[in-house]
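Record type: ASSEMBLY
Status: queued
Input:
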Amino acid sequence: MTPIFHRDRLVGFAGCIAHSPDVGGALWSADCREVFEEGIRIPPTRLLREGVRNEELVELFLSNVRVPNQVMGDLEAQLTSNQVCASRVAEFLEDAGLADLQGLGRALHARADRAMRLAIGAVPDGTYRSSIEADGFDEAITRIQCAVTVSGERMVIDFAGTSPQIDRGINCVLNYTHAYSVYPVKCALDPFTPRNEGSYRAIEVLAPEGSILNPRFPAPCSARQLTGHLLAGAIYKALADVLPDKVIAECGGAPTMRALFSGLDRNGDRFSQILFASGGMGACPHRDGLPTTAFPTNAGAGSIEAFESVAPLVVWRKQLRPDSGGAGRYRGGLGQEAVIEVRAPEPLRLSLLSDRRDHPASGVLGGASGGAAEISMSDGTRPHPKSRTMIAPGTRLVMRYAGGGGYGPPSQRDAAALAADLRDGYVTEGAAQRHYGRG
Amino acid sequence: MAIQKPRARIGVDVGGTFTDFVLHDPARDLVHTGKLLTTPDDPAEAIIEGTQRVLREVGLTPADLHSMVHGTTLVTNTVIERTGARVGLLTTAGFRDSIEIGREIRYDLYDLFLEAPPSLVPRHLRREIPERLDTDGNELLPLDEEAVRREVRDLVETGGIEALAIGFLHSYRDPRHERRAGAIIREIYPDLALTLSAEVAPEIREYERTSTACANAYVQPRMRRYLDRLEEQLTGIGFGGRLYVMLSGGGIAAVREAKEFPIRLIESGPAAGAMAAAFLSKLAGLDRVVSYDMGGTTAKMCLVEDGAPDHKYDFEAGRVRRFVKGSGLPLKVSVVDMIEIGAGGGSIARVEPGSGLMKVGPRSAGAKPGPVCYGRGGTEPTVTDADLLLGRLDPAYFLGGEMRLDPDRVRRAFADGIAEQLGLAPLDAALGVQRIVDETMAAATRMHLAEKGRDPRQYALIAFGGAGPVHAWNLARLLKIRRILVPFGAGVASALGFLVAPPATDMVRSHVGRLERLDWARVNALFAEMAAEGRQLLEEAGADPAEIVLKPAADMRHVGQGFEIPVPLPGIALGEADAAAIRASFFASYRERFGRVVEEAPIEALSWRLVCAAPGQDIRIGGAPATGGGAPAPRGHRSVIFEGHGPLECGVYDRYALRPGMEFQGPALVEERESTCVIGPATRVTVDAQLNLVLDLP
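Status: finished
Output:
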């Protein structure tokens, strides 16, 4: 955060967030027991005071991370972007002849608020409920209970009855719960109005204290996305009967499935690479779901050639998974399968963050579930889906990313669409018979 | 006027609606332009007819032509309209879905129902071949030649493909498997159009490279047929000169390159505008320029520094949403780096129901029905309609008086539409339209410059296109740009680009390595290969070998970063000893773009580039000698509403009566056939030797 001054007055703050290459603590995993293990905690503290860097803070911070140069480089990039933002805002105020942003902010918030209230007002009053489950951690399955109450132009999303917090890193703090609840509502009800704080004033998000969606300090939460990403599916499932044209089925890419490989490469240099890849999106009311596309997050993926150029790994396959799209009038988007061989001289560390092994993305309004996630090794073992494993040279890791859920009953699938799916191998003959009763 | 030595050059730009011609006869310092409706079924028809007509008008024949430079939207339209060939694709086993999986990113964060651009090759025509190289080019799995034969036979015999692309992993590093597969296929099907990814785009990143190969294959059969026919017909009318094509990067190339790599013509037309701006900036002695071309549907901005437009090496074609980045097919081709936004004279203004805010564009009324003022059935107010209400356009002198505009109809459209919805008077609503469209363009320009670490205040604006001169003054004011150049003939200025473009091409090879451990022998071998290939292409395009200039660069980044920046290199024969200079060059480029550097972090290079260019044609325009200045007499006066000033009485000047050296003050209007230059208060206007209007803002 950087203060913005205009005509010698504080008129606002510029802020940005970025993934730091490291924050100390245990490496990337969901298996920590307390937040203290997950990285260095820095309460709101001045990095610069009147432009002078707080060197003691910097030293303390950099002493606690594994790659201090990269961390500092990114932090400086963030500082620069804040400074550019601050000077552009001041220049804008000067050009516009405004003393500050208060009046403009109020006007924009009011318009966004109005647009969202109009959209909510069009939804019939009532309380709409859903319940979804996810793998959770070991025996502790995560259950999300969701009640969406619409009254007039207000909406309350209440997660009462949701699983209690857990002593593993998949707890989701309340501000994250809030963000991943209002975002899917915005996408479904009012996607194209410019958004700001005002867009979300009409929506209240409640989660009981001590639940996995509002844990008590010092609950660990570094893998909060494994829970937070599920909320969109729960909210859409609740609204599916009353807003069938506005929601999609559950997504295979929610939560994201990530594998991080780290160790030494052939030159003896330390490397650390994440394989970015996504499951399939849930089917839409009027169209099949997009293959290999994440929702509600939007992470993207890189090139395998680039991946192999910086890591001692060979990817033998990265391909769509036939039959992984949930059957339905509209089919869920396909997930994918990646096969990765370790070609490092020494064993590598594999950190996995995943879910949907036992709980595939469900369909809506009669649509079937997508294919479940699966992670296995060529020696027949299955690594822990939310923890760290050593993986020996020559081993091949098979990662199957989940498909999206289907929309509407499979019996209503258009014959030509099914024929095209068969021709292109998105659906196999056997699955066509099993799910669609033809083929 | 048949003469011994053919000397004249003609540029031909086949656009969606019009085919534009520009002819230059150096013996007479003559530049002559013409326009004909495009003949979409056979574009060669309009080219032949228009060429003959333009030549006739200046007393020349096809035999007097030294060369023709051709730009076409055929390639881009083929991709947009999906009218290309049925293409098959061979990939490494395990990777046939790369082109469908893509970058796995949603280009719109809030649209749940967004569409992905459909692949150019459907899945059943994508076949996998067992073979594999690793990142260093070592063979992990030999090429299964029998599988190549089997799959291609099936693709041709039962799949009915007309063209084939091959995209194997790591072929940018070592193309031997792709080449061997290609040779096998040519033995069986010598006439099948074939594109190797390692030849069309030898760059790391399989999705982008394979996508480029597929797109090339997709447009190749059609472009070959078209260029063959054009050559034949030109010969038929007695043309004995050379036929060149305009590449997306602003260079011209021989027809052979266009037939082999037609995808390099994807931005052929827009490149010409940038080349024209670059040429004009050189003549005017401006080394930092924003080129600004605003037409009926879009505005295009491009940075021009030291007389050359900025380049980039990727492009997106066939977007699902025209102005949304990420919604199209990525292509690794060299293009002039310009932004295109949905702001043109025909952009429609409307009030958004949710927010109650006014939006302008990107929807455009186009040429049909056109703005309300055309009286051709348009009912929604556009930017041109707002310009008319504000007094910027003369209803009686649009297109030189060929078209009468109807201000009453416009006033009613505003009054019954957006003005009523906003609770404003029609004039205030019109001013709002102008503010929004100008601010949209300014914001996009600021962002484009900011991404390159540039500050618009240090740049001049060159404005052309039908709507460019109308909006340039206000745009410059918003960007705090102090000087504007408005070329003579703003509506056809971009065609000049065809005449001045140099023979130029650029080459790329990928070879990844940390700076301190690079295999310089390999880098030098790649540069030698690129230089030989580039020289050959340029000589085919008519360049004098002695004049060819080579500019080497590398795409570099810090180890661990996901994106590279272009870094100029000291030469094409490099070694250990150059590492320090290259490091310094990287930091200089990095600082310029991002404002600060982190010296300790290691650096790596991914791709190596070589720009090969020869000097372009120099042509003289304008010509009339300076008259010693003085103020011209306005032919009338009109009241124009300027933001923050209210109505101001403006002198109206006839562009064709202005002579070099003349000076006057804004507020003023300068009218020419295709456009009107709007000049705000406290601005000095001078006419330079090329008949450009030079506006100096306070």
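Annotation: Chain B has a mean pLDDT of 91.
Annotation: Chain B has five domains: 8-79+225-265, 85-218, 267-502, 505-613, 636-696.
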